[in-house]
Amino acid sequence: MSQEKVKIFGTDGVRGRANTYPMTVEVALALGRAAGKIFRKHEGKHRVVIGKDTRLSCYMFENALIAGLCSMGVDTLMLGPFPTPGVAFITRAYRADAGIVISASHNPFYDNGIKFFSADGYKLPDEIEKQMEELIFRNDFLDSLPGVYDVGRNTKVHDADGRYIEFAKATFPKTMNLNKIKIVLDCANGATYRVAPLIFQELGAQVHIYGNTPNGLNINERCGALHPENVQKAVIDHKADVGIALDGDGDRIIMVDEHAQIINGDVLLAICAKDMKDKGTLKNHKMVSTIMANFGFLKTMEELGIQVVQTQVGDRYVIQAMKDHDANLGGEQSGHLIFSEHNTTGDGLVSALQVLRIMKETDKTLSDLASLVSQYPQVTLNVTVSSKPPLETLGEVQLEIKKVEERLQGQGRVLVRYSGTEKICRVMIEGPQLKEVNEMANQIALKIKEKIG
Q1: Do residues 385 and 425 touch, judged by C-beta distance below 8 A?
Q2: Beta bridge partners of 27
């Protein structure tokens, strides 16, 4: 395949609009071939696990990846619609050489993505992604094509759902159940629509299920973690104890308490960090979060004697920092929570089970637990941009940021950054008064729009 030398991988695998470079069938086929060449590290047969979410375009990318891998002599294990953390788990369970997820996570249905896990269930390091790009640009596959008897086979894995359900349930105490707990569950019409209801039902909960009728076009559409207002309403309607909203690929979660208040990733992390510290299981009294963590969260962790290591936004960076700092808990405000003793990536269902366990053990409501953190008002605005020049080169934008920082007088913070996957500049401001914070965020957003909108 001849391909113009334009970068394929972004900050979280490959992502973009389906049928538009780099998310084309041709690139997917080449990625399959490149993965096949790179992951053949030992004698004998090789296997790669492939899972996907519920987007219509997943069919074409799934088949293209399988064709590329099989053409290089690699067997493929096809899971069908399956959560991202489940793919990481099955990759390890099957001792596969790699795992692939076809998903654009929280993006609309018309986007899609391809991300890779290595044999240990962790996302690929940048250097391996660069190797794959170079192989594709050089079309360097002919010397590695197998003989006709050695091309790969594709197999459908029929017991994957059951394996992952049992894996998730095993992170919840065997002596405990969810009897008398009423849960509202929104699966975002995504990859968890089959497994998520069964996990909570098998543990004894009464579950009211939403977002479990995917049609290829409705993933994340006015549902799931991006639209927790649906769960908020349903919690009131059903008089539920807790609401759980997952995203399209199941690696992140937003929860809702019994009063229909949204509990985001920062607060869920704080609840779990305190519990682990109290039990003596929080390694080195340390955890990892990102630069988006709320100022109130950071103050709470300091008061509890828990050190917070902060990284750039993205769960792969959180996970790497957890490895570097020997931490066993990390996550993001957006709802990625990583418990390294359970899984190698963010897992919305495992995260929900940890919070439900704490509720049961302490006999506290979710609102009681969430009162641990007093969050500062935070406003985030997304500005669509035509280009992404270095922010420090935008003098008028920098001047506006400086004015806002002076106005906050150390009682808040400003964070302006580009999205790694979209043509968006994010403006985030925290401060004591919501009205002022909103006004200041709009001032900076307006200046960015004037310059590069």
Answers
A1: yes
A2: none
Sheet strands (E) in 345-423: 378-384, 413-418
In 3D space, the residue among 348, 333, 335, 422 whose CA is nearest the CA of residue 113 turns out to be 422
Side-chain half-sphere exposure of 43, counting CA atoms within 13 A: 0
Cβ 21 vs Cβ 50: under 8 Å:
no
Whether 4 has a pLDDT exceeding 70, the answer reads no
The phi and psi torsions of 319 (rounded to 5 degrees) equal: -65, -40
Q: How far is CA 363 from CA 304, 360, 417, in A?
A: 21, 5, 41
Convert the pLDDT of each residue in 254-311 to its tens digit: 999 999 999 999 999 999 999 999 999 999 999 999 998 998 899 999 999 999 999 9
pLDDT at 1: 42
- Of residues 202 and 4, which shows the higher confidence score? 202
Contact by Cβ (8 Å): 256, 245:
yes
In 109-263, which residue ranges form alpha helices assigned H by DSSP? Answer: 126-138, 160-169, 195-202, 229-238
Catalytic residue among 57, 71, 103, 105: 105
SS3 track for 253-287: EEEECCCCCEECHHHHHHHHHHHHHHHCCCHHHEE
**396-421 per-position pLDDT tens digit:** 999 999 999 999 888 888 999 998 77
Would residue 374 show up in a list of annotated catalytic residues for this protein? Answer: no
Measure the N-to-C terminal CA separation of the chain; round to a whole number of Å: 35
